[in-house]
């Protein structure tokens, strides 16, 4: 976390990034996806799915603080949900939980949710 990050983000957001517990990669997930955003940030999502329910989630990103916190909140929201329930999560829900997220970083929530959707689609559309 840089001095610049500390000047851009409120403490509540920095704290979510510091304590992020869902960040990391997963071996042998039931579903996964990778998306590169137009800004160049990359996001990966990994899901453990049992009887249509998401039991565990990890995400990985090389992106900025904003991308990390959007991934973390998305992962937090999705654990325990059915696949249908997870598809009801929106970028706005993520943003609403991140008071003080700079407006120009709104697209990070879209990247996180898009990657989640793609992981679910990869699972549901598996031949
Ligand atoms: Fe582009 Fe976060 S700055 S996804």
SSE arrangement:
Elements: H1 3-8, H2 11-18, E1 31-36, E2 42-50, E3 53-61, H3 65-78, H4 83-86, H5 91-96, H6 107-124
Antiparallel strand pairs: 1-2, 2-3
Helix pairs in contact: 2-3, 3-6
List its salient traits:
127 residues, binds FE2/S2 (inorganic) cluster, alpha+beta, Sufe protein. Chain: A, single chain, elongated, three-stranded antiparallel β-sheet
Describe this structure in words.
The chain has 127 residues and is an alpha+beta fold. Helix content is 44%, strand content 19%. A 3-stranded antiparallel β-sheet has the order 1-2-3, with helices on one face. It starts with a helix and ends with a helix. The mean pLDDT is 95. The structure holds FE2/S2 (inorganic) cluster. The site of FE2/S2 (inorganic) cluster has 11 residues, from helix 3 and helix 6.
What is the approximate shape? elongated
Please state the structural category. Answer: alpha+beta
Q: What is the typical, i.e. mean, pLDDT?
A: 95
CATH domain topology: Sufe protein. Chain: A
How far apart are the termini?
42 Å
What is the succession of H and E elements? HHEEEHHHH
Supply the number of structural domains: 1
| Widest beta sheet: strand line-up | 1-2-3
What is the count of DSSP helices, taking H or I runs of 4+ residues? 6
pLDDT < 50 stretches: none
Named once each, the bound ligands are:
FE2/S2 (inorganic) cluster
CATH class, named Alpha Beta
Helix content: 40-55%
Report the radius of gyration as a whole number of Å: 14 Å
State the total count of DSSP E strands.
Answer: 3
Strand content: 15-25%
What's the story with the biggest beta sheet? Answer: 3 strands, antiparallel
Please identify, by name, the CATH architecture. Answer: Alpha-Beta Complex
